[in-house]
Each structure stands twice: as structure tokens, then as C-alpha cells.
Amino acid sequence: MTSTATPATTGLATAARMKGARRKKAPLGEGSSRLHRSEQKWALAFVALPVLGYLLFILYPVLFALYASFTRWNGLGAMEFIGLQNYVTLLGDERFHQSMWNTIFYLLGIPIGLALALALALAMNRRLVGLTVFRTIYYVPVICSIAAIAILWQWAYNGDFGLVNQFLAMIGIDGPNWLSDATWSKPAIVVMMVWKGLGYSMLLYLAAIQAVPRSLLEAAELDGAGAWQRFRAITLPMVRPVTFFLVVTQIIASAQIFAEIQIMTPGGGPEYSTASAVFHIWRQAFQYQQMGYATSMAIVLGILIFIITLIQFRLNKRNSFVLD
Amino acid sequence: MKKSRLTAGVVAGLVVAGTAACSTGGGGSSDGLTFMFRGGDDEKAAYQAAIDRFTEDTGVDVEVVVSDPDNYATQLQASIAGNQVPDVFYIEQANLQAYVNEGILLDITDAVDELGVDLDNIWDYGVDSYRYDGTLQGTPEGRLYGLPKDIGPFAFGYNATMLEEAGVERPDPDVPLAWDDWLEILKEVTVDTDGDGEVDQWGTGLNVQWNLQSFVWSNGGDWTNEDRTEVTVDTPEFAEALQYFTDLTTVHGVTPNPEQAQTLDTYQRFMAGEIAFFPVGPWDMSVYNELDFEYDLMPWPVGSTGETAAWVGSLGIGVSATSDMPDEAVQLVTYLSTDEAAQETLIDANIQIPNRIDTAQEWAAEPDAQPANRQEFLDIAEDYGRAMPAAFTYGAAWYDELWVDIQPVVDGVRPADEYLAEVQPRMQALLDQSNEDAARAAEQNAQND
Fold first, then answer.
1. Which residues of B touch A180 (CB under 8 A)?
2. Do A286 and B258 touch (CB under 8 A)?
3. ipTM of model
4. A149 and A261 in contact (C-beta within 8 Å)?
5. Of A173, A245, B344, B395, which is least surrounded by CB within 10 A?
6. Confidence band for B6, pLDDT divided at 50, 70 and 90
7. Is B2 close to A272, i.e. CB distance below 8 A?
8. What residues contact residue A190 under an 8 Å CB cut-off, 6+ apart?
9. Do A76 and B259 touch (CB under 8 A)?
10. Is residue B431 helix, strand or coil?
11. Which domains does chain A have, with CATH numbers?
């Protein structure tokens, strides 16, 4: 019962009981230690539940996937162990490389999205008429179903009747056929991802900006710092934890982009230009019955995401600061 | 005391979890059948009618599981992985071999025979699609693993009203147009109707992935050799067909240009009366019959062979090998595939052609038929229709590979022959792999037996 996680009252009560037991030096002490043991057992039982859940639903599937990645398996029948052959195959699989490159391209949306979100949050932080309305409007895409959004954007990008090209035509630009043009299909998806994620990042930034102590800003102002200097030297470093959180979670999420791709470009886009890594994996697993091979690609993707996240944590540690 | 209660609780929990995970409930509950399919309201209604009659005749209840089309394959695979295979379910041609080799589909040859189903009265293509002899699928000698839900002959059609207004003769239903003659007509009807300087009516507007097949075949080309071991897309016949196909857009301008020509758009443009020639599947009839112009069917225009060609698809209905009630399940399949009342509901909904040949002939001969030349569908079904290139191979990865990088050819920035020569080795490698997988799976299956 020394765990800090134990509620304080239980800890005190146990301590009191133990004190009493020592004072009396009676064989009753055994009784209290029996109680202690019993409590510990119950504690273990409660802990066992999430642990069991973790073993059953996370560790077991992960280990199973790891094994499956070393087999030839169509997802239906028996698995045949083939060692590293799947991994050798994927080294030379151009489509897999292409889908990984596409996925990396999609990550470009993250810095763009964060910069826009921060700018928006700064704007929203002022006292303006209709502020709540704007905040709500920017947050709406976040709560919309991803399938609905993908279909909406598919229409918007239509070369002929699409909203995007109609708008471009108004300012004299002849827009491309976004999703059917290998050059423009990826940027088109990035724009959609940025739009979709803006509201969420903006909300977190807004909260972080409002948490910056006024005293710091006032002190800087007294020292003659301009608006830009205050932003660079105070606000930006103060919201860094939020930036870190957003970058980490968004890289993990963006690296697994799938639904948008499958709905907007069902075949992986012209010349496979929009196929993400997960799309490629899904296609191999469920359309071509190459479950073993697909699993090996999923493992590689998982390891890459893990490494990137690890590097980010390292970098963040080096750059972190403590406010006294 | 406490300890034992605790232990008992944990053990009980594990037992529950264990049994749930390991139960071998293949085939659902033993007091009824489960039928899993995908489709719209028309199909649902039609099948409910057939199922009600089945329940009335046999006293066996049927639980129906409907899935949306996009999720069907994933849902079926999940139910197989979870050992909860529905007794009766839709099966795609391309998955049949894998499902047979993994022991998921029941051999229904004898059961269908005992039920006295007249297979001669169902389209050969529809029945043979679900025959498999352990090596080749689609052969008349193979064992039967399903019956057709329907067959889908993909015919060619035209806007009769538009042709009449342009003073063009209606295409002959029996003599196919040669490519050159057809092109002349296309040029004639591609015009600017409202005089604003922009073309707003086109000859045609085709999608390479779904419409190229006929052009290749009637020009003497094909995707593979006959025993499906060699990819033959790099032949001059194939290249000529693909080049002709893309030239329609990029050289002759008789289709909407690439920006305007996304699949959805040409389909809608045809329905809006802006396009003269467009493919028509049986499932299109329900929508096309409501259009405010007359349309009709014709043979696809022909290349060097002079013989018209079209693809015909099919979806099957199979029985789970682990079903508790295999006899009843097979009987249900025959109701769904051939029951007259159910067929009538589907035909009246204008979404398919009849599975029974005699019914189909009556249907085509109806005096007020719409489209008038319904016979074209039947000709494809029994005469000149062919299976899609990947319908009977072990997976379609090799076939899909052709489409992935084809956009520059469609846009006219890359010659067809150059592209085909480049893609052939990649397709060949994938086909080799699919054939290897098929052989290995068949071998395993043989060992299991």
C-alpha cells in the first residue's frame, strides 16, 4: 500500500491500522496483515482486468501479426512459414515504395495546418463580434463523418462542375482536374486534410494562448517589446507543448490515412499517386488475399511511425524548458 | 473463502472468454439458415419473396444479413475468420477458387442434381462460372460450387432520338459497325447545338477500365493466352485497340475532353441527352427507361476481326461447407437463383435479365419491350459474351496493374504500344505469382481431402 496511486484515505487508514498493530504487539497483528494481503489480492484482481484486456486485444494481435508477417497466408486458410521472404519482397515492391512516398508527402500538411491553426487561434483570441460563430464554423469539419467529408471534397474537386475550379475560374485561373491528374492529386488531398484538422488544432492553440500568463506579456511590453517580439519570445515558446502534442499525434494519424483515399480515389489515384501506405496494405490484404505480405508492410509502417515518434520525444526533451 | 471466490471469478471469466473465442459455430444456429448478401431495396424485396416461399415450403427459417456493396467482401472475410460463415452467401467469380481450396464452399453438384434443377435452362455462362475442376474455373466439366444470382451482359447502346434528329440511320441490330464507319457517325453528331462556340454534344464518352475489353477482343487481342499463363497485352492487336480507343478523345475529339470526362460525368451526360453512344448494362434499365429520349441496344463496333465482343459478369450464390443444414441451404440457393416469382420481381424492377432461358426469351420478345432490342442482352449471354479477363484467375492484382498507370495514355501524352510494352512484364510477374498461389492452394486442398 505504498503506491502513490492509492487514494490518500486508504493509505492513511492502512498506516493507522499498522501503527495500532505495532503498539499492541498482539497476535491480532497477523489478522491485519491478512486483511492487507486480501486487499492486495483484490487490488490485483482489479488491475488484472485491464492487463488481461491489453494482453488479449493488443499484445496478442501484435504478436500474431508479427508471426503472420513471416508467413504466406491468404487470410483464410493455413499459414505457411516463409521466414523473411515477405520483407525481401517489399524491398523491391515499387508500389509499396510509392505508397510510402505518398504518405510522407501527406505529412507536409501538418506544418501548413499548424501554422494556419496558430494564426487562426491568435485571431480568435481577440474580442470580435460573432467570435463563437467563427469558432463553431471552424470546428464543424472535426465532428463530421470522414466519409461524408471525402465525398463532399470529391465533388468539390470535380474538374468540370467542382466548386474549387468554379472558384478558380472566377479569379481567372483554369484549374486542373484535381483527382485525375497525377501532379495535383496529392496536393488536393493535403488541402482537404488541412481543412479537416484545422478546427481541432485551433482549439488547442486557443486554450494554450489563453493560458499564457498576462504578467509575462505585460512585463515584456513595459520593456518595450513590440507585438511581433512578444509573440516570438513569449507566446510561441509557451505554446510549444501543444505544438509538440499536435505534431506527434498528427504524424501518427496522417501516416495511417486511409478512408479519404479509398473514397476519393478508389483505385489509388492516377498512376497510384494518392495511394497511402495503409491503402496499399488494405488492397493487398483484402482485395488480393495477400494477408501475410500485407502484414509485413504494416509491421514496417508501424516500426517507422514508432521511430519517428521516438526521435520527436528526444528532440522535445532537448528543447523543453521549465517555467519557475 | 475469499481467495476461492476470487479464483473462481477469474476462472469463470477466462472460461467465458475462451469459449467465446473458440466456439466453432460455423453455419449459425441449427434451427435456421443465415443468408448474407449485398444489394439495394429491389433485391432485398425480391429475395424476401423467394425466402418467404422457401420458408413456407420447407418450414425452415432464414435470417437475412444485408451488407452494403463496398463492405461485403470485408464482412464476409471477417465472418470466415471468426468461424461464423453464413450458410448461404454471395460469391464473386474471382474468389471462388480460393474459397473452394480453403474448404469454405460446399460442393453442391449432387445436391442440385437431386433437387431436379434443370441447369440446361440457366445460362451456361452463369452455371459454368461456378464450376471448378481443381485447376481451371469456368469449365463445363468442373464440380459445381454455386449458382448464379444473375449474369450481367454489358451491351452497347445509343440515343435513338438524337440519331434521328441528326439524320443518322439507326444501327443495325445484327450487323456491327466497323470502327471507321462508327467514327464517321461520331464525328457527325459531335456538334455545338446552341451556337455558343463550344461543343456540347458528343459521339461517345467511354471509360477505359470498363469499356476497353470489347475493342481489344474484336480486334483479335486479349489479356492472356487461353490457359491464362501468359499476359498478352503487348501484342499489336491490343495496342491498336487501345490507341483507337484513346484517339477518339485526343485526336478526333468525339468525346468530352479529359477534364470533362470523368466516368460519372459521361454517364450523366448520356442521361442528359448530350452523348450519342454509351454502354448499357441490365442494371441500367431501371434508370434509362425513365429518360426523356428513346434508347436502344446494338452490337459493339468492331475492329479487324469483324466479330463483335462484350464482357458478361456474374455474381454467384454459394453454400458454406460448415453449414449444419447443407441440404436446406442448397435448396435455398435454387430458390434464390431460379424461383419464378423471385425472378419476376427482379425482372420487373428492371435490374437484371432473367436467369431462366425460357423466361428470358419471352421477356425479350415482349411487344412493348424497352429497350426494344432486349435480344442483344441475350445474344451476349449465350453467344458472344466473354468473362472479364481476371474473372477466373486467382486474384486480380495482375489485371488491375494495367489501369494504375494508364492515365497518360488516355490523355494522349504516351503512345499505347510503348506503355503496353512497359507494363507487360509487371503484369506477367503478378500473374505468375497468382498462378503459383493457385497451384499451392490446390495442392494443400488435395492434401486436406
1. 258, 262, 407
2. no
3. 0.71
4. no
5. A173
6. very low
7. no
8. A105, A106, A108, A109, A112
9. no
10. helix
11. 90-319 (1.10.3720.10)
Q: Which positions of chain A have pLDDT values less than 70? A: 1-32, 318-324
Pick from A41, A75, A268: which is nearest to B77 by CB?
A: A75
Residue B303 near residue B244 (C-beta atoms within 8 A): yes
Contacts of A2 (CB under 8 A, 6+ apart): none
Whether the CB-CB separation of B106 and B88 falls below 8 Å is answered with no
Interface touch A160/B437, C-beta < 8 Å: no
DSSP assignment letter at A127? -
Band of pLDDT at residue B21, cut at 50, 70 and 90: very low
Closest-CA residue of A relative to B390 is A288
- What is the reported pLDDT for B297? 97
Question: How many Cβ atoms from other residues are within 10 Å of residue B197's Cβ?
Answer: 6
Task: Provide, as residue numbers in chain B, all residues whose Cβ is less than 8 Å from the Cβ of A176.
Answer: 259
Per-residue model confidence (pLDDT) at position B27: 41
Residue of B104, B260, B440 with shortest CB distance to A160: B260
DSSP B217-236: HHTT--SB-TTS-SB-TTSH
Are the CB atoms for A175 and A158 separated by under 8 Å? no
User: Residue B256: closest CA among chain A residues belongs to which residue?
Assistant: A160
Amino acid at B128: D
**Which residues on chain B are in Cβ contact (under 8 Å) with A287?**
73, 395-397
Q: Does residue B371 have a cis bond before it (omega within 30 degrees)?
A: yes
Instruction: Tell if the CB–CB gap between A180 and B80 is shorter than 8 Å.
Output: no
Q: Do domains B31-153+313-385 and B155-312+395-439 have the same CATH topology?
A: yes
- Do A74 and B437 make contact, defined as CB atoms within 8 angstroms? yes
Helix (H) or strand (E) holding B36: strand B32-38
Domain B155-312+395-439 homologous superfamily, CATH: Periplasmic binding protein-like II (3.40.190.10)
Does A267 sit within 8 Å of B98, measured CB to CB? no
User: Residue A48 and residue B10: Cβ atoms within 8 Å?
Assistant: yes
Q: What is the CATH T-level fold of the domain B31-153+313-385, as seen in this structure?
A: D-Maltodextrin-Binding Protein; domain 2 (3.40.190)
> What is the CA A57 to chain-centroid distance, rounded?
20
* A320 burial level (CB within 10 Å; 0-12, 13-18, 19+): exposed
CB atoms under 10 Å from CB of A299, counted, come to 19
Q: How many residues are listed for chain A in this entry?
A: 324
Q: How many CA atoms lie within 13 A of A160 on its CB side?
A: 13
Name the pLDDT band for B31 (thresholds 50, 70, 90): confident
Q: With an 8 Å Cβ cutoff, are B74 and A286 in contact?
A: yes
Q: Where are the domains of chain B?
A: 31-153+313-385, 155-312+395-439
Alpha-carbon separation of residue A203 from A29, A135, A192, A194, A213 (angstroms): 56, 8, 18, 14, 18
* Sole residue written with cell 460463415: B85
For B441, nearest residue in chain A (alpha carbons)? A77
What DSSP state is assigned to residue A144? S
The pLDDT of residue B254: 95
Q: CA Rg, chain B, in Å?
A: 25
For B11, nearest residue in chain A (alpha carbons): A45
**B407, A182: Cβ pair inside 8 Å?**
yes
Query: Is the CB of B436 inside 8 Å of chain A's CB atoms?
Result: no
pLDDT per residue as tens digits for the range B43-77: 787 788 888 889 998 899 999 988 877 778 878 88
**CA–CA gap between residue B54 and residue B321 (Å, rounded):** 21
Cell numbers 520527436: residue: A312
